[in-house]
Amino acid sequence: MLVYADENLEVIHRRGGSPYLLVTFNEMEMQANGSRFWGQRFCEKADIAALGFISHRPNWFPAASVVAAVRAAAPILAAAPERILYGHSQGGYAALRYRRRFGAAVAIAFCPQISIDPKAVPFDNRFIRHFAADLHGKMGIAADQAAGRAYLFYDPFHTVDRRHAERIAAVQEDTHLIPVHMTGHGTVRAFAGTARALSLIEACRNDDRAGLKALARSARVGATLRPYQIAVAAIARHPAWADQFLQRFGHGFSPVERVNFLYHRANRHIRDGELSVARAMLAQAVELQPTNAGFARRLEELESRMSRARVGTLEAV
Hints:
The chain is an alpha/beta fold and 317 residues long. Helices cover 49% and strands 14% of the residues. The protein is built from 14 helices and 8 strands. An 8-stranded mixed beta sheet has the order 1-2-4-3-5-6-7-8, with helices on both faces. β7, α7 and β8 (175-179) form a beta-alpha-beta unit. α13 (275-288) packs antiparallel against α14 (293-316). The longest helix has 24 residues, at 293-316. The mean pLDDT is 91.
């Protein structure tokens, strides 16, 4: 049942038999369509009562819209003795920022950002195109937004996500960091499946940190994205080994994983002065993902650099 909608987000209520209300926030790849919410299939399979917040676009759930939506959903929230917030990336950000607003007993966040304001997080340029000063003023996760307990899952080998996680834990009390190695920015996918997701929620509800760490170890070992993450991590220090890993396991990479590997490996080739090899890899990445402006721009920059180098060589002769 649709309980709220505006230009930024929609809220859908699902009745269920769970002893808690699961409030979910979507990742940026999903957009509102009036009838679905992030985590819906899981909630249906497990008969979980849910309140799904879904953005119309990657907008990091602007505060004014969330405040209005919470007001509209007040009767549903008041009837729920226990509220659990759940989200990944921009959804993880919302689960932590609005802990107090929802009176959450528990917040479960995967790979959240403390902010996407480029002035606040100069180390992260992934989401700059989604930042709007009029929507995101003072958007950073802060100490006075904390309530209940929070569990933040992230990959320590993902440098940018790790910096976000550490900064959030430093400002919000009772926030527990749970590392899930070699899962990259897709940590939430390591916990896919009804049984595993239910185990995760129950462990968080019971503050079973030993159980959570054991679950995280089990999840990362069996994660389908693990080979890709290992290959990407190897590029920085063992590029030749990364190439061998690609040759052995690359057939299992998803299209997105393959193109991202090519991009990161090309950047390492550029760093090593192997410009022709890098150009071939970037050209392949652009061919596989022609709508990615970042890939095209990087290839254009490299070709311009190679052209200047050729001119300089001719002039020297």
